[in-house]
Amino acid sequence: MMTSEPTRRILAALLFALGACGGAPVHLHGVEFSPAEPAPALRLADANGGTFDLAAERGHVVFIYFGYTHCPDICPLTLSDWAKARAALGTKGEKARYVFVSVDPERDTPAISAAYAKQFDAAFVGLTAAGADLDAIKQAWGFAVMKEETGSKNGYGVAHPGQTFVVDADGRGREILPPNTRPADIAADLKALLP
């Protein structure tokens, strides 16, 4: 089986964090990329007719999460933890961007994704990836998405990555925060990464 370059980088970062690459100390709470490399592109239309472009976010630490609005567990928990971390940091929390990208375009329009993200914090950005954009993002960021029939009233679930991608102020992928990272740890990492 062929492994994509983003997937190889993620695997290398995981091995590094587990001490397989010389046991160097991990300074952040997630899995660090070593060395940090430019983050993949992320450019999507927003609910207001504008465009969110990750390349334009230089100078800010950016948290990116790929999920969906009908998610019953990890998506709302992650965004809730982001909100707690942002609140704990006060004005420093405003120096980061928090971006939720829905990978369920059948149910999540840009407006629905934006409203969903903003229910956790008014500063959060909600976007939706669809069609060729979604395919390109999955390839570049190294993840898969799969529809799962659940028999629930929502009709189906979506298997998606559970981690948060963290991009530093220089536009480099710096770490992957695992699901259930404590808000205090998210806040500490943000402080460490702020310019």
Shape: globular
Q: For the largest beta sheet, what order do the strands appear in spatially?
A: 1-10-9-4-5-6
Strand content: 25-35%
Pairing-aware structural class of the strands and helices? alpha+beta
Largest sheet, described in full?
Answer: 6 strands, mixed
- CATH fold annotation: Glutaredoxin
Portion of residues in helices? 25-40%
Counted by DSSP, the helix tally is 5
Total strands: the figure is 10
Number of structural domains: 1
CATH class categorisation: Alpha Beta
Cα-atom Rg, whole angstroms? Answer: 16 Å
Per CATH, which architecture?
3-Layer(aba) Sandwich
Instruction: Encode the helix/strand succession as letters.
Output: HEEEEHEHEHEEEEH
Mean pLDDT: 88
Written overview of the protein:
- By secondary structure, the protein is an alpha+beta fold.
- It is 31% helix and 26% strand.
- The longest helix is centred in the middle third of the chain and has 16 residues, at 74-89.
- The chain is globular and about 45 Å long.
- Residues 11-26 have low confidence and may be disordered.
Short description:
By secondary structure, this protein is of the alpha+beta class. The protein has helices at 5-17, 74-89, 110-118, 131-141, 183-193; strands spanning 31-38, 43-45, 51-53, 61-67, 96-102, 125-128, 146-149, 156-159, 164-167, 172-177. It has one domain: Glutaredoxin.
